[in-house]
Structures are given as C-alpha cells and as structure tokens.
Amino acid sequence: MEKMLIHGGKRLAGEVVIGGAKNSTVALIPAAILSRTPVVLDGVPHIQDVYNLMSILGEMNVKSDFTGNILKIDPTAIVKTDLPDGKIKSLRASYYFMGAMLGRFGHAVIGMPGGDDIGPRPIDQHVNGFEALGAHVIDHNGLIEINAPKEGLHGARIFLDMASVGATINIILAAVTAKGQTVIENAAKEPEIIDLATYLNNMGATIRGAGTETIRISGVEQLAAHNAHTIIPDRIEAGTYLSLAAAMGEGIMVRNVITEHLDAFLAKLEEMGVTMEVGEDSIFVYPSGELKMVQVKTNTYPGLATDLQQPLTPLMLTAHGEGRIIDTIYPKRTRHVPELVKMGADIHVENDQIIIHHSPDLHGADVVAEEIRGGACLMVAGLMASGDTVISKVDNILRGYDRVVMKLKALGADVELLDLP
Ligand SMILES: CC(=O)N[C@H]1[C@@H](OP(=O)(O)OP(=O)(O)OC[C@H]2O[C@@H](n3ccc(=O)[nH]c3=O)[C@H](O)[C@@H]2O)O[C@H](CO)[C@@H](O)[C@@H]1O
Ligand SMILES: C=C(OP(=O)(O)O)C(=O)O
Asked: Which residues form the Enolpyruvate transferase domain (predicted)?
C-alpha cells in the first residue's frame, strides 16, 4: 500500500505549473465516445482517474494512448458493452458513461459510481433528466439500466432541483443527439461545464448558454471531432498550491491558471491578508505576515468551491481568532478534522460547522486521507508541521492531483511515496 511520507516544516519556493482540470477531463473522456472520429485531448493531467477511465474505454474496445500531456482516444471500433462493476466503482465520474452511452447507443447498463465518500451523493437529478428525454430507467439494486424509446430520445425542458454539476453534464451528453431542443433550467455554471460544451460544439453539437443557469441544446444527428481540445487548468489544484504557498512559501509562482475561475477563493485569501500579484495566467504569492481569520461558506460556482474548503483549512490554522467553515454542498465533508487533531490542530465539528482556532504548533502524525480534498488538506498540513507525517490511503490524493510529488519536490518539499504495509 502506497503512503506519502512528508518531512515537514521546510519553507518552499519556486514555481508550479497547474495541470488540466480533473473535473473537466473526467467528463471529456467519456464524452469522447459520442464522436465518430478519433479524439485528441491536450493538457491532460497525470491522475489515477484518467488511467481508470482509459481502462473503462478499453472494456468497450475504445483504444486510447496517453503520451506527454496528450490523450488520443479512438472510438471508431466501439462495441456496446455493459459496465456493471470493476473500474466503474473506482471513481465518481464513471457515471458520465450513462449519458454518453445513452447518447451513442440509446442503451446503457452501468453500476453505481464510486468516488469520494463525502456524505450522500444521490443521482436522482440525472435519472429525472434521462426520463424527461424519454428514456426508461431501471435500478436493479445499484445496477442502472437505461433505455431510449424505439424512436430515440427527444428534447425536453428540464428543471433541476439543485444546480448539480454531474446531472447537468449527464443530461447534456444524452441530449446532444436527441431529436429537438432540450432546455436545462437551474443548470450548474461551473467552468468545467463550459469546457465540455466547447468540446462538444467543436464536434458539431449545438449547445448554447453553458456557464449560465439556462442551457439550450438543439439535437444533431451525430458528432465528429476534427481538432484537438485543450483542457482548462484545474482551479482546485491551483487553489491547493495557493493555500500552501501562503502558509509555507518564500515566494511561489503558480502558473497556468484562469484567475477568474478562482475569484471567490482569491477574495478569501485577500481578506486573510495574503499578498499576491495576480497576472494574466499566473499568480505570485509573497511570504505571508500575520494572517486574519475568516469565515467560509461554500457554494455553487461562482461561490467558493466545496473542493477548496479543506485545502484552505491548514492556512486558516495559522490565523488568529475563531473561524468557521460551512459547506453548504457537502455538510458532512469533515473526515479530515479528526486527522488534523492528531497533528495538534485546534479544530472541531459542531452541527456540521467546522470551527477553527489558531494552531501554531502542528506536528507530524500518522493520518488517513479518506478522500481527495481531505487528503490534500493533510498534505498541506504535513508540509507545515514539524517532524514526519505519514498519509495512508494516498491513492485518494493521486486520483486527482497531477504529478503531485514531483511538483512539491520542485518547490523544495521533502516528500516521497513509499510502499509501506
Ligand atoms: C467529477 C466531478 O466533477 N466532481 C465534482 C462534482 O461532483 P457531483 O457532480 O457529484 O456534484 P453535484 O454538483 O452533482 O452535487 C451537488 C449537490 O447536489 C446533490 N445532488 C446531486 C445530484 C443529484 O442527482 N441529486 C442530488 O441531491 C449532491 O448530493 C450535492 O449535495 O461537483 C461537486 C460540487 O461542486 C464537486 O465537489 C465534485 O468535485
Ligand atoms: C469530490 C471530488 O471528486 P469526485 O466527484 O470525483 O469524487 C473532488 O474532486 O473534490
């Protein structure tokens, strides 16, 4: 079992280049099966989720080749295949094969996805969307079978109960080749949705309004990719390094960012007193002086992302006063809290609110990364702490952080992956 060993307490400096967005990539790869021609993705992050999706593609006789940052996917010999278990369970985004297979074959049999254990993650909005398009959905005890009617899917007006990223993407994937117009109201507005729409539109889809709460899709016969698509930078990876830079940096340049995607997060860092120079596609973080405690409430985009509340937490531990984090998207996303306590943090959970006090003396400990961002939080805390931190279940970090050990080492961190029992 791989674990991450961190000899903490070292000041860091230099630059880090952010990879392509995990949450775009994991939608773009399943979406590739809608194309009748080979697909090329550029800026693909080296993360376990990508390797697992490639393995799922292989089960459908879709060949893929990942060299450098380029992923080539050839769906021309695709075979309609049921995907009941195996790698499907290794990540959340495998549920995008529901919409993509439905769009391509009018039929999908997919096991319920895996992904982070961060509280309840139902897929009722995805199912309601498929049904509105005319599909028949049967849940065979966690094995989801979806069938389009004989005449194919038809456009529909769909109002989401909540602005779900996954449901918005899955409905787009199914609707791009449905007959007629689909309108998704209360759609998610995350940048990854715009990235997906750009990619599909370049294949011949007609999707308008991505990035707003009303998305209109006019169905087309079929899609075919003709150009490579460059994936947007990962705003969550960027936020994680910004938090680390503010906590331990002697001057760190974070490159390849779309700074607008980080507006809410940057505003929070500024409120804390972090000094930054925000360029066109980079952010330089100066060494921090005394920081001010802040109150944090996560929200859907453009609000502060739930995926950034945990990476921000170690930085908040350096500030004076009492801070609170309310995660309105995943209120139970608190599994990192007892692990931080093992490291000497003054932090606890009260009625789903995370309460934080100044904790200047973090020390290394054996901790568990129960999920990706909780893991990222412990990684940042481990780099700040004195002594050694050993993080187990590190695969949860590696499934979403591009070449993280290499990037941290380049900043001067003393970190390695070890095969430990
Ligand atoms: C692969 C990917 O892109 N993952 C991201 C995606 O997850 P994911 O797409 O799973 O998250 P959603 O936006 O769908 O979930 C938002 C909220 O809606 C609820 N909900 C969602 C769907 C549904 O059918 N019913 C329902 O009740 C969820 O439980 C959650 O409370 O968006 C989350 C919220 O920004 C991020 O934390 C994840 O990193
Ligand atoms: C929750 C996350 O991922 P997933 O939806 O893939 O589990 C995340 O990236 O923070």
From this structure: 7-407
